[in-house]
Specification:
The complex is a heterodimer of chains A (about 400) and B (about 110). Chain A is built from twelve helices and 17 strands. Chain A is α/β, with parallel strands linked by helices and about 400 residues long. Chain B has a two-stranded antiparallel sheet with strand order 1-2. Classes of the chains: A alpha/beta (about 400), B little secondary structure (about 110). The interface of A and B includes residues 196 and 214 of A.
Chain lengths: ~400, ~110
């Protein structure tokens, strides 16, 4: 069934189809519409979710943690500073191994205060122990949210999942989208049946006890192993999802990579712009390709190295700064992943689009122009640069 | 299921519970948490007048109060000793409770 819905609408609709037990709700631009639409479903009696309106994101995630520990399926949505206010709880949720599902509508972090898109919010939470899945468009935002619970709740994983989409670009843009039937969604996600939960009266449970040095390390190893196991589970769920939707997903999407010599690595909605640029360049005979990272945590390092093994020059495009003075977070991961290749492609990092700065097809073509030059001369020039800012030399 | 009694500081990570969850109640009594105390409380039962002052005197839950008999036992936890040492200038405030210095721990 084809519909026209915005990114926020489709995530709220996915939540309605799932009918979670609890929602911790607090508004923040651009994710506000998700709890807003969902509140209507609650008011109309279309779901029987316990909708908990709280006073901050610290509390909305706390509600989800308590509910999930009690044995309830809980969901949440937030953006930017809201996610930042949750950081402490993100770690608690992950280390208590509570498979909460959070819709993160990416927005730049203050300051200066800005409401538009980049990944500085979710990148700040990248080491919190959450699975992170990024969407290019509304369809992927919907599909990723539905796949989140079967991934996170599986016994081999038991980790919270953050499904991310680009603020405004995806969250507020109305696109054609294929929705699944509600029955199919419910069958797909199944019942939430945790082995241990607080409300199981015959089995008293303590969650999140004090954990000093004789035990903490072992629990962190368990958590790290769960994140490694998530890779296989994500692919397993994708196979099942394809059966009901006809849409196939991997850890990343390769676009015209078969014989690509010049390639981009990036995330989210910019992939659409990059695909248009690549199609244009391919017509001119330039062997351009794209790897769109879908799953950032766990990071598909080995798979990415294989995908880029035969390229000559690669640009990683980071839509968050990171302030490492050594390139953005996606660059750090990609560069590390390529280290074990016998013959590595040239690699540069381009930080772009911060705070919603637009990126156009011509901008992507410029990046490929730089890559072509690097492949030809073997000189990479500056390893890590910014793109799109005004400077004395013109627009970079 | 993994039981608390089977977990100790030699347990490998594969045999611990996810997130350190504990699946039974009251497991604290399985673990000696008092290795840092410096004094040992000694109870003189013959001096006990059932005045109940030991209950507020000692940390919460250190003196279990049961019907018919105020006193069952001093739970020999560090909490009692720390309290006695820290907050009470004279351990003779309660006639039934005396504080003796611990033997210094063996040098390791």
């Amino acid at each position: 069934m084809s519909h026209r819905l915005s990114g926020n609408e489709v995530v709220a609709y996915a939540m309605k189809q799932i009918n979670p037990d609890v929602m911790g709700a607090f508004p923040i631009t651009p994710s506000t519409e998700i709890p807003e639409y969902f509140a209507q479903y609650v008011a109309n009696g279309e779901v029987n979710t316990e909708y908990v309106a709280v006073e901050s994101e610290h509390s909305s995630m706390s509600v989800c943690i308590a509910a999930q520990a009690a044995g309830a399926r809980s969901v949440c949505a937030t953006s930017s500073c809201g996610l930042a206010l949750m950081y402490e709880l993100l770690y608690v949720a992950a280390s208590c191994r509570l498979p909460i599902t959070l819709a993160c509508v990416n927005r730049a972090l203050s300051g200066p205060i800005n409401i538009n898109h980049d990944y500085s919010d979710s990148m700040g939470g990248r080491d919190a122990g959450w699975i992170q899945i990024y969407a290019e468009n509304n369809q992927e935002a919907y599909d990723n949210f539905i796949m989140a619970m079967p991934i996170g709740e599986h016994l081999s994983v038991r980790l919270p999942v953050m499904t991310c989409m680009d603020g405004f670009i995806t969250s507020h843009a109305v696109e054609n989208i294929e929705l699944l039937e509600t029955d199919a969604v419910r069958r797909f996600i199944g019942q939430y049946n945790p082995e241990h939960y607080l409300l199981k009266k015959e089995n008293p449970l303590a969650v999140g006890p004090y954990d000093l040095s004789p035990y903490y390390m072992e629990h962190k190893v368990l958590q790290a192993e769960a994140m490694k196991a998530a890779r296989a589970r994500i692919l397993e769920v994708a196979v099942e999802f394809e059966k009901i939707s006809g849409r196939s997903y991997g850890l990343f999407e390769e676009y015209r990579m078969e014989d690509a010599e010049l390639a981009l690595v990036l995330m989210g909605s910019t992939a659409g712009t990059a695909k248009a640029a690549i199609d244009k360049l391919r017509e001119e005979g330039i062997k351009a390709g794209l790897v769109k990272i879908r799953v950032f945590r766990p990071f598909p390092g080995e798979e990415l190295a294989r995908a880029l093994a035969d390229t000559r020059a690669v640009a990683v495009m980071d839509k968050s700064e990171g302030f490492s003075a050594n390139g953005g977070p996606l660059f750090a991961e990609t560069r590390s992943a390529l280290y074990d290749l016998k013959e590595r492609p040239y690699l540069i990092d381009i930080v772009y689009g911060l705070g919603g700065r637009d990126v156009k097809v011509e901008d992507i073509e410029k990046v490929f122009g730089r890559l072509a030059n690097i492949a030809q001369t073997g000189e990479i020039g500056s390893l890590y640069t910014h793109m799109g800012q005004r400077s004395k030399e013109g627009i970079a | 299921m993994i039981y608390a009694k089977d977990i100790n500081e030699h347990t490998p990570w594969q045999e611990l519970t996810p997130g350190g969850e504990i699946y039974e109640p009251g497991t604290a009594r399985l673990f000696n948490t008092g290795t840092w105390r410096t004094n040992t409380p000694v109870f003189h039962e013959e001096a006990c007048k059932h005045c109940m002052l030991c209950v507020p005197f000692c940390p919460d839950s250190a003196i279990p109060v049961k019907t018919g008999n105020v006193w069952t036992s001093i739970m020999c936890t560090a909490r009692v000793a720390v309290s006695v040492k820290t907050y009470v200038p004279s351990p003779r405030l309660l006639w039934c409770l005396e504080v003796q210095p611990n033997e210094p721990p063996p040098f390791r």
